[in-house]
Amino acid sequence: MAQQLLMPKATAVWLVDNTALSFDQIAQFCKLHPLEVKAIADGEAAQGIKGLDPIATGQLSRDEIQRGEKDVNHKLKLQEPKVRVPESKRRGPRYTPVSKRQDRPNAILWLVRNHPELKDAQISRLVGTTKSTIEQIRDRTHWNSANLTPMDPVTLGLCSQIDLDLEVERASKGRPLPTMEEAGATLQSATETENLGFDYRSEREEEKEMDADAVFAKLSSLKSTPRDEDDEDSRY
After folding, report:
1. Are 86 and 108 in contact (CB under 8 A)?
2. Measuring CA to CA, which of 57, 72, 209, 230 is 20 to 30 A from 33?
3. What number of other Cβ atoms are within 10 A of residue 105's Cβ?
4. Residue (of 155, 149, 158) closest to 112 by Cα position
5. Contacts of 27 (CB under 8 A, 6+ apart)
6. How far apart are the C-alpha atoms of 80 and 75, rounded to whole Å?
7. pLDDT, tens only, 73-120
8. Where are the beta strands (DSSP E) in 30-75?
9. Judging by beta carbons within 10 Å of its beta carbon (0-12, 13-18, 19+), is residue 171 exposed, middle or buried?
10. pTM
11. If you ran DSSP here, which 8-state letter would residue 42 be given?
12. How deeply is 32 buried, as exposed, middle or buried, from its count of CB atoms within 10 A (0-12, 13-18, 19+)?
């Protein structure tokens, strides 16, 4: 990995203010356009940027700057870093411990059934298997298909829940939204609900009216009963 200059625009500001280097030399060193360096010198660009001293950061030596000031054609070179940072290794297939490899077919079956949107490459990244094994489990041609049991790969320890959610989210981005029939929607339209509400209110009102009539009829019958008894007593 090639060494890169830190904060090139801030470094260009410092070189413009503190050295006699040409615009072309600063532009070449900071990977900028010469006109942009000229705009920095004129105060038209990078007005709010504070200059960064490349000598203090160990990216440029004072002798290198002096050589550039003496020779206009000299191209500035980055100073070799004192500490080498090892390059990050390229991530390969997920390693699965030997003790858990026998559980991979069960995990693949679980992923195929519960997340059919996942591609074979995604399943392979999650559980560390091959595409041929995934196809055999999909087609039920695996040698141990009769004895396979779907099992969550997170529970088996083959992958983390974060990795599984990330792959499912990636696979779901390009999928079309489910239709009303696929989602099993049971919601009714607004007109139907409005009609239902109106009928419901009218039925409640009718029930109230019926209840009131029944109450008044019962009261009238109770009132009429004592009067009849009094009339019968008066006869005697």
Report:
1. no
2. 57
3. 24
4. 149
5. 12, 33, 34, 36, 37
6. 15
7. 999 888 877 656 555 555 555 666 666 678 889 999 999 999 888 999
8. none
9. middle
10. 0.39
11. T
12. buried
